[in-house]
Amino acid sequence: MARQSKRGRDAGTGKFISIEEAKRRPKTTTIETVKVGPTKKRKK
Questions:
Q1: Strands 3-10 and 16-17: what pairing?
Q2: pLDDT averaged over every residue in the chain
Q3: Closest alpha carbon to 27 in 12, 42, 5
Q4: Ranges of each domain in the chain
Q5: I need a surface site. Which of 5, 8, 15, 44 has the fewest CB within 10 A?
Q6: Quick check: helix, strand or coil at residue 3?
């Protein structure tokens, strides 16, 4: 099952930013839920 995490994104440039920064600038940013795939296991 895929995990989910929240990320902030600048609407103008599309770059990821911190959630705190996105909350400070709500007119030009969005907070998205991004699916995170499973981690790969290391071979021993």
A1: antiparallel
A2: 87
A3: 12
A4: 3-36
A5: 44
A6: strand
